[in-house]
Prior knowledge:
The N and C termini lie far apart (48 Å). By secondary structure, this protein is an alpha/beta fold. The mean pLDDT is 97. The chain has 9 helices and 9 strands. Helices cover 37% and strands 17% of the residues. The longest helix has 19 residues, at 196-214. It has a 5-stranded parallel β-sheet with strand order 2-1-6-5-7, sandwiched between helices. Helix 8 (196-214) crosses helix 9. Bound molecules: ligand JD8.
Amino acid sequence: MRIDVVTLFPELLEGPLRTSIIGRAVDAGIVEFGVSDLREHGLGRHRSVDDYPYGGGAGMVMRPEPLFAAVEPLRKAGATVVLMDPAGERLTDSLARELSAFPHLALVCGRYEGIDERVRTLVDREVSIGDYVLTGGELPALVLIDAVVRLVPGVIQEASHEGDSFASGLLEYPQYTRPETFREQAVPPILLSGHHGEVDRWRRREALRRTLARRPDLLDSAPLTDADLVILDELRDADG
Ligand code: JD8
């Protein structure tokens, strides 16, 4: 998979894309990144990329010409072009899975008060990472890359996506490692018992308990078995 990022701040992307699991996917040749500096397509002696908004108002708007100059060659190369934008479709695990199947993505990052509206004709999708205001599209692009790249075959142990909380539709069960007792808090004895069947049942119950307590909305769409429904009734009876 190839992912190009179009940005005024290439340095915001470089460290994260070289680090940890994403960096390893690059070293393994599974994903390839290109970071394109919009300033290189800026206009005039000052390489200008923004201008005042027609109709007035505060702040600056990104001009269309540099964005078209940076993105058109990526489109021609076959990229699916994604604009990071607060008005976009919300990034979910399901959208990340869909995007992980494309061979070539180009992520367009705006800054300032936003982009000239005509740039939307250049993009295939618009994606937002959530309802909070950020200063530009670079951190959203990194979030999207992180969510997508880990799903590309070979990047992480396949078995670990099956346990993904959003794959099961539930929150994660509690996890423990050594030591067995830390500051008077013991690891639940069932996890030390070696009874794998009982461990699995305990984990399912705890995932249901946590989801019921913290994200009951998820239970409406999670695939639940009859045994899960019995457990949920017990949990509701026990704690309200
Ligand atoms: C791109 C400029 C700054 C400042 C409106 C658009 C995504 N979930 C998300 N939150 N914020 C963004 C995002 C913000 C951006 C740009 C994405 C380009 N800004 C804001 C206030 C006024 N602009 C985002 N994806």
